[in-house]
Design a protein that fits this description.
This protein has 345 residues and is of the alpha/beta class. It has 11 helices and 12 strands. The strands form 2 sheets. A 6-stranded parallel beta sheet has the order 2-1-3-4-5-11, with helices on both faces. Helix 5 links the parallel strand 1 (68-73) and strand 2. Helix 1 packs across helix 2 and helix 7 runs parallel beside helix 8 (205-219). It is elongated, with a radius of gyration of 27 Å.
Length: 345
């Protein structure tokens, strides 16, 4: 029988029993229906010898589930930073006896809907719709009314609420400010957003919530940012330009909160070029825990995005049901050497 899949009928014929008897034995119901031990042993032995594997799709559909989940993202699969979300979702699916279908839209809305429809056509038990960046997006048309969890994104205010799992950017923002406050810093400059709550890209959940956390924590000490330098793009050249602008304003020491690590890379460069240094002249705290953050000198204190945990939680939310909620996961602190405690000097 090589070259084709061994069927239940093949097992029954080789074991000398009916197809229904073979099915009952291989679904562990032989004792329940009083099939003899000898017949059960024979069926199991023959099934093992023939290499029989049950048709999981047929079995799952009889139970009202396919044992599969869909994962549709924009550019998560091709991102070095966010790829662990897929690894986490794969791990969560495996833990729960499911397989994961993965598709990537490259940000094309029509392609996203096509992928969602293709997965629904394959009877997936639920859909995870993921974004590389934490953002607000309307629920795609093809996913409306379905079992859906949004990963690293959520629906905008005014849109119907959908279950979502995102990083706790607000708490990380508060903690970033607290690290500097506890180290004695009172002149804290923001690179990437601020100084007011509206000074941030409107569609950036990460920027908005990080800024809100920073401002609320500073307010507990009766403080406001010493300055804020907004930019909608957060790449190293932007960090370099904004930090140079800060230095050109006459600032020669203090503390920086950069809104992501790539901004911090540019800030480090600008500080070094000015003849100042981190952390002797400028303490720096950031977000994302980019792969290079621990290679900078001095090593960058930053908050990690819990990508793997986000993927695991998305699967758990998808399979557990329940009403709409936004679950925020802690961003682990990577405390390194870019902050100087000036209370000790």
């Amino acid at each position: 029988m090589t070259g084709k899949r061994v069927t239940l009928a093949d097992v029954a014929r080789a074991a000398g029993v009916s197809r229904s008897t073979a099915s009952l034995v291989l679904s562990d119901r032989g004792d329940e229906l009083r099939i003899s031990e000898a017949a059960q042993d024979r069926v199991r032995r023959v099934a093992a010898e023939l290499g029989y594997r049950p048709n999981m799709l047929s079995a799952s559909l009889r139970k009202g589930t396919s044992g599969t989940l869909g994962f549709v993202s924009d550019t998560v699969a091709t991102s070095l930073l966010a790829g662990d979300m897929i690894k986490g979702a794969l791990e969560g699916a495996r833990r729960n006896g499911h397989m994961l279908f993965i598709g990537e839209s490259e940000g094309d809305e029509d392609e996203q809907n096509r992928l969602i429809e293709a997965m629904l056509d394959r009877q997936v038990d639920g859909l995870i719709i993921a974004s590389m960046f934490t953002r607000e997006r309307p629920l795609p048309r093809a996913a409306q009314g379905r079992n859906v969890v949004l990963l690293n994104m959520m629906t905008p205010q005014g849109e119907p609420a959908v279950r979502a799992v995102i990083p706790d950017e607000y708490a990380a923002g508060r903690q970033a400010a607290r690290i500097l406050l506890d180290a004695g810093h009172r002149e804290i400059h923001l690179i990437g957003g601020g100084p007011s709550r509206s000074d941030v890209a409107p569609d950036s959940v990460a920027g908005r919530e990080r800024l809100a956390g920073i401002l609320d924590e500073l307010d507990t000490e009766g403080l406001a940012p010493a300055s804020g330098w907004q930019r909608t793009i957060w790449l190293p050249p932007d960090g370099w330009e904004l930090t140079n602008a800060l230095l050109a304003s006459g600032v020669r020491r203090g503390a920086l909160i950069t809104f992501n690590d790539r901004l911090a890379f540019g800030a480090y460069q600008a500080i070094s070029e000015s003849g100042a240094s981190v952390p002797e002249d400028f303490s720096v705290v950031s977000f994302d825990d980019h792969q290079l953050a621990s290679w900078l000198h001095p090593h960058l204190t930053t908050f990690a995005l819990p990508h793997r945990e986000l993927g695991i939680h998305a699967v758990e939310m998808l399979l557990s049901g329940g009403g709409a909620e936004v679950r925020r996961l802690p961003m682990p602190l990577r405390l390194r050497s870019s902050v100087k405690d000036i209370t000790a000097t």
